[in-house]
Amino acid sequence: MKSSKITFTNSQGKLLSGRLDLPLVQEPHNFAIFAHCFTCTKDFSAVRNVSKALASEGFGVLRFDFTGLGDSDGDFADTNFSSNVEDLVQAAAFLEKEYKAPSLLVGHSLGGAAAIFAASEISSIQALATIGAPSNPVHVKKQFGSQAATIEKEGEGHVKLAGRDFIFKKQFFDDLEQQSCEAAASKLEGKALLILHSPQDATVSIKNAEEIYHAAKHPKSFVTLDGTEHLLIDKKSAAYVGKVISGWAARYIDLPTEEVIKTTHQVVASLDNEDGFTTLLKLGNHYSKADEPIRVGGNDFGPTPYELLAGSLSACTAMTIQMYAKRKGWLIENVEVHTSYGRTYAEDCEICDQENKKIDTFTREIKLTANLDEKQLARILQIADKCPVHKTLHSQTQVITSFVD
């Protein structure tokens, strides 16, 4: 995942701080916005890990601090649920202006409730996923305990949440009282909704998921996060959530159609002028990309041509060894073939500074998980040199080139 800092302004002109997480090996096919949980920040573990999982599936993900939280400007005491919703709308406007309008909205806990409201105000959103969201935002008042009554009576009060002190004003509660996720979910016309919730959630009971689900129109889906807790701190659970959201959303968002290149040959490579070194490959029935490292002007979206060649040698060697071992009845649980390419000198010489004294060299190391004796290992080493790609690299070859219409 590649991550960079970004900033944008909210509707009040305050500067909000965020991070844009991008896939490592491709341009993002879609953009998503992540709304963090109540009084959390963009750097909360669940936010980072779900975002990372989505980026690994090809999404660009904007996670940001709501006004007055984390690195964002503004006074938290003057914010409320409605301002969170407005922050999400402004985040979408920022993405549309600077990158591409978001198609996916993801929200955790109260951020999930805010996402439900914001989705209807962001026309580009096609899919929405909530994680442990309350069906009514006023649910968060339970976290205030006896301080809620003090705030209602005196107009404001200090509350310690997750070890941090916050000032809350009565207007925060008044705003919550006017909101209903059930009502908002029922208005999600043409936007798919995925509700993820844990039966063991002790903070927001799973009854909330049921209420949102019944209120929403189709298309809607529910996934149980059995065994997880509300804050989704476990890294594996968060990664699972991200991959589930990605797989589900693929049915409802616009994905770029895979470029089709046809050939009567086994392999074809296609490179447009504006793509630099990023080359589309069709290898048999499979599509892939080749590229060059960033340090030489590439995007590093795929292996280099020589890495592909070394990969062919490694794969062919592994296949040949396993095929031979099975024929002999030898058990090799696993074979790893590590290969590097370079140019080295054919032999020690007095004129080694001459380029024509160097030859193409593949350094190949084989690691076996097997209980074989020395004689068997020696035979495996001989068989490795007999793999078809190895033999091709050692044989005299020719490349016949011509133009086609």
Automatic annotation (TrEMBL):
Residue span, Serine aminopeptidase S33 domain? 47-133
Question: Which Pfam families would you find in this protein's record?
Answer: Hydrolase_4, OsmC
Checking PANTHER family in the record gives:
OSMC-LIKE PROTEIN, PROTEIN INVOLVED IN RIMO-MEDIATED BETA-METHYLTHIOLATION OF RIBOSOMAL PROTEIN S12 YCAO
Please state what the protein is called: Osmotically inducible protein C
Q: Which organism is it from?
A: Patiriisocius marinus
